[in-house]
Amino acid sequence: MIQQYTAGIAKGFVPENRGSIHSVPQLKCWGWPINLSLAQRNKYVTIAIAGHDAGVADVTNKDISTVRVLIADDHTIVREGLKQLFSLTTDIVVAGEAVNGPQVCERIQRGNFDLILLDMSLPGINGVELIALIRAQAAHLPILVLSMHNEVQLARGALNAGASGYLTKDSDPEVLVAAIHKVMEGGRVIDHQLAESMAFDVSRCPQNLPHHQLSKREMQILCLLGGGMSVNEIAERLFISNKTVSTHKARLMQKMNIENNIELVRYVITHNLTG
């Protein structure tokens, strides 16, 4: 469960008088009762929490910071709802919005974001391809997918393309907030129902599917090729040379035992890797 990753961590602000100790009893950390004590040392906050699970008590030093989020979703009601949710937190702010793939890329170039909250069904581009573009443009910018789709193959394609997490839009608000914190700490998250489905898929299959052995870059190129792009178009899109794309293409086809472009496109469509 996502909550287990984050139950021992909360963030807060302390007064300027360095070294002072403050006790704030009976607060809630994402809905759970906690006992909280804060001690400021050089702009760091020491937090002690008695969590809702036995053994969750933790002491953690966290730099006080704000998570600047870019919301990429073409539905106004979703964006407004997310802004209202984040306004209730102390450290998550909406720093930008985008409603299609080109806007996402333009916002990333102009803005200063810590995380992208991405819908997989933006107009004009499939989600896996957009994740590949973001990774090429901003390799270290975390991507948390928030999608209406709960298909295992789509989630796996997003994660293989470089997303840090995948949640569905029926997730509880506290789960989304916890997931953002988890991703910002360098972790990865996935909807618990999808995680169970993936686990059962693996248990039923003695071997993984051929594309599971591909590197992230090979997976990106596979998805773009399957979407109908040429080697030249992929090279321009990913800011790499034609020769590099051709080398990755040859390697991934060899790994997957694919002999021609028709087989490659059929494989991508069959396994729903185009988003």
From TrEMBL:
Taxonomy, superkingdom: Bacteria
Protein name: Response regulator transcription factor
CDD domains tied to this protein: LuxR_C_like, REC_NarL-like
InterPro entries in the cross-refs: CheY-like_superfamily, NreC/VraR/RcsB-like_REC, Sig_transdc_resp-reg_C-effctor, Sig_transdc_resp-reg_receiver, Tscrpt_reg_LuxR_C, WalR-like
Keyword Methyltransferase tagged: no
The UniProt record lists the keyword DNA-binding: yes
PANTHER family the UniProt entry points to: NITRATE_NITRITE RESPONSE REGULATOR PROTEIN NARP, TWO-COMPONENT RESPONSE REGULATOR
Alphabetized SMART domains for the sequence: HTH_LUXR, REC
Domain Response regulatory: 68-184
Pfam families linked: GerE (PF00196), Response_reg (PF00072)
Segments forming domain HTH luxR-type: 207-272
Residues found modified as 4-aspartylphosphate: D119
Molecular function via GO: DNA binding
Positions of transmembrane segments: none
One Gene Ontology biological process: regulation of DNA-templated transcription
